[in-house]
Amino acid sequence: MTFRQSRHGPVALITIDRPAARNALTLDAIDELADLVRATGEDDTVRGLALTGNGAFCSGADLKSIAALGAEGPDGIKDSIELGPQRLIRALLAVPFPTVAALDGPAIGLGMDIALACDSRLLSARGWLLQGWGRVGLIPGAGGELLLRRHNPAILWRLLEEQRPVDGPQAERWQLGEAVPEGTAVDAALRRLTTLAELPRTALATYATLHRSGLARQLDEHLEVCARTQVPLLTDARFAARVAEVVGTAP
């Protein structure tokens, strides 16, 4: 089982549960998570969604499986990007109530993009973010650059250059998230969402729509450019070599 679901009153919690792979997501798992998020958003009894991971938050897409698919050529790669990671980001942005990424471990590459797509990011002492895509010669194909720019447009080049973890205090200074100095990010997320759930559902839905409105207007064009660019990068013969190198030295 790749995911666990639980309810905490009006709050839904989805836990990525693939600890042996540091919660890296295969394309099938990404599709499954998108379906879970969408179904949660359509549940009239839910007023908040928290995402977390067992150990790591999410160490990104399963690069080995994607490299294997890329080695077969461009056929199907574009569809895999658009029907998988991009659909997941769209699903998160369509949830009609607040979403919180609870980081009690690393969020790398796609994991960081998923966290950035949520309305809040809470990082405990064990939580951190890493851009990651640049290490393997890729762009964030699910919209991570746009999501990052939404929060802090000044740090992209530094993140690409340094490729170092961003912990809670640094994330707070860069306006990427909030540090949780004591306890777990999951507990902090559940407390926040439970409090917010006291608002009428219509009010919550309107806050969510307004908070994401500028992003929604830019998303379609941005994701099309991402898909068009990512396909040749994924099918480049050097991509698999970069993956092998990075996987062996991942923090």
Radius of gyration: 17 Å
Report the top-level CATH class. Answer: Alpha Beta
Q: Within the CATH hierarchy, at the fold level, what is the topology?
A: 2-enoyl-CoA Hydratase, Chain A, domain 1
**What is the N-to-C succession of helices and strands?**
EEHEHHHEEHEEHHEHEHHH
CATH superfamily: 2-enoyl-CoA Hydratase, Chain A, domain 1
The biggest beta sheet is recorded as: 6 strands, mixed
Distance separating the two termini: 25 Å
Structure explained in plain terms:
With 251 residues, the protein is an alpha/beta fold. It has one domain (3-185): 2-enoyl-CoA Hydratase, Chain A, domain 1. The protein has eleven helices and nine strands. The protein has helices at 27-41, 63-71, 77-83, 85-94, 110-117, 144-151, 156-162, 168-173, 185-196, 201-235, 237-249, and strands at residues 3-8, 11-16, 48-53, 99-103, 106-108, 120-123, 128-130, 166-167, 178-179. The chain has a six-stranded mixed beta sheet with strand order 1-2-3-4-6-9, with helices on both faces. Strands 5-7-8 form a three-stranded mixed beta sheet. Strand 1 and strand 2 (11-16) form a beta hairpin.
